[in-house]
Amino acid sequence: MVRILNNIKALILTNSRSYPRIITRRLNSSDATAKQIDVNKIRNFSIVAHVDHGKSTLADRLLEITGTIKPGVENAQVLDQLQVERERGITVKAVTASLNYTYNNETYLLNLIDTPGHVDFSNEVVRSITACQGVIMLVDANEGIQAQTVAVYSLAKKNNLLIIPTLNKVDLPRANPAKVKAQLQSLFNIKPESVMTISAKRGWGVKELLEAVITRIPPPSVDTKGDFRAHVIDTWHDKYRGVLCLVYIHSGTVQVGQAVKWKSDMKPLTVKFLAMLRPSEEPVEEAVAGQVVMVGCGPKAGGRVGDQLLAKEVGNDDEGTSVPPVKHMVYAGIFPADQSQHPQLNDAIKKLALNDSAVTVTPDSSPALGQGWRIGFLGLLHLEVFTQRLLQEYKAEAILTAPSVPYKVKVKGAKAIKQYKGDEVIVTNPLLLPDVKNIEEYYEPFVIGTIITPVEYIGAVTTLCHDRRGTPLPSNAVDDNMTMLQYILPLSEVVIDFHDTLKSITSGFASFDYQDYGFHPSALVRMDILINGMLVDELSTIVHTSRLEWNARRLTEKLKEQIPRQMVQVAIQAVVGGKVLARETLKAYRKDVTAKLYGGDVTRRKKLLKQQAEGKKKMRSIANIRIPRDTFIDVLKR
After folding, report:
1. Cα separation values, 114 from 73, 92, 128, 554, Å
2. Mean pLDDT across the stretch 38-64?
3. Annotated binding residues, as ranges?
4. What is the pTM of this model?
5. Which amino acids are annotated as binding site for GTP, given as ranges?
6. What pLDDT, on the 0 to 100 scale, is given for residue 214?
7. Rg of the chain over CA atoms, in angstroms?
8. Helix, strand and coil in the chain, % to nearest 5
9. What local confidence, expressed as pLDDT, does residue 575 receive?
10. d(CA 39, CA 37)
11. What are 445-473's pLDDT values in tens digits?
12. Domains along the chain with CATH numbers
């Protein structure tokens, strides 16, 4: 037995000693490649487009042409690594892949970033283009220009990126490249001869597009001899290595073992992990300015999107590229299904929020639902994907409350009110709304909505926008059949079901995108729910005065359906400033107290009924109506 144990011990020691040597040889081989990289042979570019225009399919073809993956059905949607992305057929996370390609006997390093197309994940696009010098703007040759196409074009021009306009799906029978090229010229003044035509599914024209990336997009303008400086464009959590960061290097070089620091925290750190994503990790010993690489500084060395990673000797006043702050459009409460699951859900939310930097997490509590969190999202799809990832990746079940948008209020004499630091207060939860006596003015968030629709649906779209309190802006004709409409709309009217209604009334042909327009004065009030005269805090909402009666009737009717019947009558009221807007009455259970009578004088019956009436009157005066937790969940959930 002793001999067997000694043999096992010797085998473990041998394997533990040989493993680092294997890694070292791999690092050294990659190190030789990294040192030979010429900045003029680097191209950093993204693929941007409206949703479902073929970005992920084009990324697959580029990976095949460069020899990164083998052609085959099993390698479809390689960069869509999340389960939710494959199930929904959409891209949620921007993913980087570093590709090698030989053109005119010169080897080029191409850093490809496949970005999402839905407006709710536009933050991923904004972060990605900070590491790019050009973009491939993909347009479906069947559908033509869509609302998100206008948004990504404006974003690319704002960041002075070179745009390669490309028409995809030209192999389909309904494709009309000439018509779409005319749309590009009409809206963006893009010359038709500069537009590439491809079929990402069949691979037609993809090689020419890849060569156009090399010839058209300029190399990164970086300082290879300066001190190391990089900014973080993505982060994620590894079980064994801690926080890993994807960074774009602006100047200098970085090596494994080098001393670095975060700009937000001047504590010295050491680079322990360095790799290129191809898209799987390929460890390297050194990376140079212009590259997009993965950096890890150990389990306890964090990092966040937008922060800068600097050489140890660089001062804190050194400037660099930063990611603009995120403006959240929707807030919702997330609570564990059972309070015993609070630690598990807390850990899952922290790890997922690290990978999804567009969310903000603040602790929250509810008398009905217990301890939870108030989380800010970029939209309803973002909210749905976040909760789906919680369940799929961390096995964490959560209760989601009704989403609401942030409001702003101007407080009277805010300096005299200790809890408010300024004259204007952002309110993300109706419960935190100041007393109405202290509010001077309410402000509601608005957006500029861009709708591209066939001309035959203009009337229906206009009616919808007017019903949602929209204000029209000048419209543009995309071509003879399509029109681009713009409206200033309240965010609260957009985030819930506007997109679904728009698709319904236009038979799915219209597309919608929006951008922030700031806060503007609005007639808002807080609507409370009373149950037998008792205020229920969790059901309070902020409503526009024009929607008061409709919201009041809808909520009281739903509560009547959900609250179980009691031994006493239950009055459900929607109240604003003491005025009852809607009321529903839940009838009490009636016990037949005369069932035991089998005849005799009628006064016996009257006596029993009188006693029952007096008992119910007393019960009604002291009764505390307890609404079951399931009722709150059914009413509050989206």
Report:
1. 19, 10, 9, 43
2. 87
3. 49-56, 114-118, 168-171
4. 0.73
5. 49-56, 114-118, 168-171
6. 93
7. 30
8. 35, 30, 35
9. 92
10. 6
11. 999 999 999 999 999 999 999 999 999 99
12. 39-216 (3.40.50.300), 222-325 (2.40.30.10), 330-400 (3.30.70.870), 407-522 (3.30.70.240), 525-636 (3.30.70.2570)
